[in-house]
Amino acid sequence: MQDFDYCRPASVAEVLTLLRDGVDSKLLAGGQSLLASMKLGLMAPARLIALDRIPALRNSCEEQGQLRLGAMQTHGELAAGPALQAWVPGLAQMASHIADAQVRAMGTVGGSLANADPAACWPAGVLALGATLITDRREIAADDFFTGLFGTALEPDELLCGLRLRRPRRMAYLKFEQPASRFALVGVAVAQFDDDGVRVALTGTSQGAVRLPAFEQALTRHFDPVALQGLRVDEDLMSADLHAGADYRAHLAAVLAGRVVQQALEASK
Ligand SMILES: Cc1cc2nc3c(=O)[nH]c(=O)nc-3n(C[C@H](O)[C@H](O)[C@H](O)COP(=O)(O)OP(=O)(O)OC[C@H]3O[C@@H](n4cnc5c(N)ncnc54)[C@H](O)[C@@H]3O)c2cc1C
């Protein structure tokens, strides 16, 4: 790994000043993706700006009738904390199944969303929930945040501060794990709202997390796995690698969609 400078600002304002001073910098959250990329030589920033000293990025609270999460909250903290468990238990459960205890202790929700790995769980969860992502300068609907493979709407000097979640009637997430990493080979998140129908989001595609409109329409009419019978996921949408081909992933996605609806129904009994 190449040498780099390291700094730990104590406020969002200090982060923004550093991001704009012309030094080639990367924000460091839990480091679970970024440090691995640097060790592999895929990235070589001149400076890392650590976000772990900024209290404003670490809180959950109720805001505008929604639950706000801080970007620097870890998967483990969110999985075990009462706030998310009470608001969207299905999302807390999703966080509790990310990777292993060590990754969950370090990896953050903000890092996962900003990284937008096509096999990650959080992007599908927040897309299904129609979350609002909050940056230092604006709010971005989840529908507009993910822009493709490892792509987001964030500007290079923009800090993701947190996100807000509406309370769904039901929400669940189910993934088929790649056994070595526990990343999702395919993952499906479903959320049903009292006033806004059903949203379904898929991870494991070649374009990052995406919604499945035909599945959403069917489930808005009838929230039951039988409503999905005959629906297929387009295999052109899916990733393909040595772990699984696109046809297998597409089939798996449709199977998981039915199962995750059943899971959501059972969890709300
Ligand atoms: C072995 C292994 C297994 C994993 N399994 C899963 C899994 O099953 N499911 C899953 O969802 N994830 C999984 N992950 C990913 C992991 O959960 C981390 O969340 C993810 O790697 C990134 O989070 P981080 O906090 O470590 O971010 P970092 O690695 O520190 O940063 C990632 C990127 O986001 C940028 N960034 C970070 N924070 C911000 C911010 N606040 N604003 C703007 N940009 C920011 C960084 O500059 C960097 O480009 C796995 C990782 C590993 C190593």
Short structural summary:
The chain has 269 residues and is of the alpha+beta class.
How would you describe the overall organization of this protein?
The chain has 269 residues and is α+β, with helices and mostly antiparallel strands. The chain is 33% helix and 23% strand. The N and C termini lie far apart (52 Å). The chain is globular and about 55 Å long. The chain has a five-stranded antiparallel β-sheet. 42% of the residues are buried. The protein binds flavin-adenine dinucleotide (FAD). Flavin-adenine dinucleotide binds next to strand 2, helix 6 and helix 7.
Distance N terminus to C terminus? Answer: 52 Å
CATH classification, class level of the domain at 170-267: Alpha Beta
Low-pLDDT residue intervals, each spanning 5 or more residues: none
The named CATH superfamily of the domain at 170-267: CO dehydrogenase flavoprotein, C-terminal domain
Q: Give me the side-by-side strand order of the main sheet.
A: 4-5-10-6-7
CA-based gyration radius: 18 Å
Helical element count? 11
What ligand molecules are bound, each kind once?
flavin-adenine dinucleotide
CATH architecture of the domain at 170-267: 2-Layer Sandwich
Let me know the average pLDDT: 96
Q: Work out the number of β strands.
A: 14
Q: Which sheet architecture does the biggest sheet show? A: 5 strands, antiparallel
- Beta-strand proportion: 15-25%
Quaternary state of the chains: single chain
Q: What is the CATH fold-level name of the domain at 170-267?
A: Enolase-like, domain 1
Shape: globular
Helix content: 25-40%
Sketch the topology as an H/E string, one letter per element. EHEHEEEHHHHHHEEHEEEEEEEHH
Structural class: alpha+beta
